């Protein structure tokens, strides 16, 4: 089991926005409580307050000094008053510490990869919440959120993407994105920061898409290739990736070193029915930097941000039905969920729902997962 750098020291740096008069609970204790309760499956402010009421003997270990724990309204005021940008920065710093504590095997991939994608907090947005759409960067290897920003009202994800990239150290990283972020400016920004990109290409870049499809329509095209077949329950999935350098020098796309086409075929074992789809992408990684097998892995693991983060927040934490809408509370709650999920991923946990049930039954394990000693109580 991986030792996670303790959150307490990082959360202690979050500035306390509250006036001294009437302040009952330490800010760090409140934030640690939110993280522990989320590890145990808490979905909202009321559940966080109920956790500390149900486990009063853990209050002191979290840093509480008062005879009673915080109420739901206290938790709400906490998230409403927090500078969510500062909170996100602190949690991003913690994620950087975790990455340093968990070095990767460069024989498998010679670089680190992060996936970037956006997610709307559906019910919060319907309720009138501001900035209820978030863009996150996820470590493909660890399933850990490296940074997250809100998409301000009346702007779009592309603007937020630039803000997100400005917060990240991209040297030695490959950034994978879906087609929305396949923009010249974004590619240039990544390259200027000494990073690389792998971007899906669709109809929002019609000229580039046409050039790539024409290249791969040539049956005599010299390509390098990788193939994998995986069994998923009742489905057999086969992916074939073909990569080419034929567009190098013929397109002005920033930093382009390879284009590739991946064909995905899904066969249902029971019926024999087969369906297929084709995707195209560009990358700044040269053939010497990334083999077709490595490109295929990068593409497949880009979708970890959907399956290992967004899906978990929606299904396990019921985020899309959360009705919180005041101020930046939706983003603050999402940041805590990201952290709880990241803690579990780093521990090697794959079934987040089962882990939440185990932590709820044995709260000492939740505190230990955050690096808090429990004295075997």
Structure description:
With 377 residues, the chain is of the alpha+beta class. Helix content is 41%, strand content 20%. It has 15 helices and 9 strands. A 9-stranded mixed beta sheet has the order 3-2-1-4-5-9-8-7-6, with helices on both faces. Helix 2 crosses helix 13 (329-346), helix 3 packs across helix 5 (72-81) and helix 14 (352-361) packs across helix 15. The chain is elongated, with a radius of gyration of 23 Å.
Can you summarize this structure?
This protein has 377 residues and is an alpha+beta fold.
Q: Uncertain runs with pLDDT below 50, 5 residues or more?
A: none
What structural class is derived from the secondary structure elements? Answer: alpha+beta
- List SSEs in N-to-C order: HHHHHHEHEEHEHEHEEEEHHHHH
Strand order in space, largest sheet = 3-2-1-4-5-9-8-7-6
In angstroms, what is the radius of gyration?
23 Å
Distance between the termini: 21 Å
- Mean of pLDDT: 90
Biggest sheet statistics: 9 strands, mixed
Describe the global form.
elongated
**Total number of helices:** 15
Estimate the strand proportion: 15-25%
Q: Tell how many strands the DSSP assignment holds.
A: 9
Q: Level of helix content?
A: 40-55%
Per-chain topology:
Blueprint: H1 7-11, H2 27-39, H3 45-54, H4 59-62, H5 72-81, H6 84-101, E1 112-120, H7 122-126, E2 133-139, E3 144-150, H8 157-167, E4 173-177, H9 184-192, E5 196-201, H10 206-217, E6 224-232, E7 235-244, E8 258-268, E9 274-283, H11 292-302, H12 304-315, H13 329-346, H14 352-361, H15 363-369
Parallel strand pairs: 1-4, 4-5
Antiparallel strand pairs: 1-2, 2-3, 5-9, 6-7, 7-8, 8-9
Helix pairs in contact: 2-3, 2-13, 3-5, 6-13, 14-15
């Amino acid at each position: 089991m991986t030792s996670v750098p303790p959150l307490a020291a990082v959360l202690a740096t979050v500035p306390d926005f509250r006036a001294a008069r009437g302040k009952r609970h330490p800010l760090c204790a409140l934030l640690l409580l939110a993280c522990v309760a989320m590890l145990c499956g808490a979905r909202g402010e009321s559940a966080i307050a109920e956790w500390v009421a149900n486990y009063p003997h853990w209050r002191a270990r979290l840093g509480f000094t008062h005879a009673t724990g915080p109420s739901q309204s206290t938790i709400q005021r906490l998230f409403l008053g927090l500078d969510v940008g500062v909170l996100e920065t602190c949690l991003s710093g913690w994620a950087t510490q975790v990455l340093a504590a968990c070095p990767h095997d460069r024989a498998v991939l010679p670089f680190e990869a992060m996936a970037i994608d956006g997610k709307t907090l559906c019910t919060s947005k319907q309720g009138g919440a501001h900035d209820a759409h978030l863009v996150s960067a996820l470590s493909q290897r660890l399933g850990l959120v490296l940074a997250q920003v809100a998409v301000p009202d009346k702007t779009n994800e592309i603007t937020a993407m630039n803000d997100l990239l400005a917060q990240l150290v991209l040297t030695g990283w490959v950034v994978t994105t879906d087609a929305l972020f396949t923009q010249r400016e974004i590619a240039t920004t990544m390259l200027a920061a000494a990073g690389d990109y792998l971007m899906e290409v669709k109809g929002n870049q019609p000229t580039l898409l046409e050039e790539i499809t024409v290249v791969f329509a040539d049956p005599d095209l010299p390509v390098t290739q990788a193939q994998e077949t995986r069994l998923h329950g009742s489905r057999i999935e086969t992916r074939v990736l073909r990569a080419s350098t034929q567009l190098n020098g013929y397109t002005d796309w920033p930093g382009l070193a390879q284009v590739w086409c991946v064909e995905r075929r899904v066969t249902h074992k029971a019926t024999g029915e087969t369906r297929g789809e084709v995707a195209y992408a560009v990358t700044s990684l040269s053939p010497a930097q990334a083999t077709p097998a490595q490109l295929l892995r990068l593409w497949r693991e880009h979708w970890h941000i959907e399956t290992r983060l967004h899906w978990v927040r929606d299904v396990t934490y019921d985020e899309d039905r959360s009705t919180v809408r005041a101020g930046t509370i939706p983003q603050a709650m999402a940041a805590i969920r990201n952290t709880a999920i990241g803690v579990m991923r780093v521990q090697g946990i794959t079934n987040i729902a089962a882990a939440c049930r185990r932590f709820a039954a044995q709260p000492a394990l939740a505190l230990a997962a955050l690096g808090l000693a429990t004295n075997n109580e």
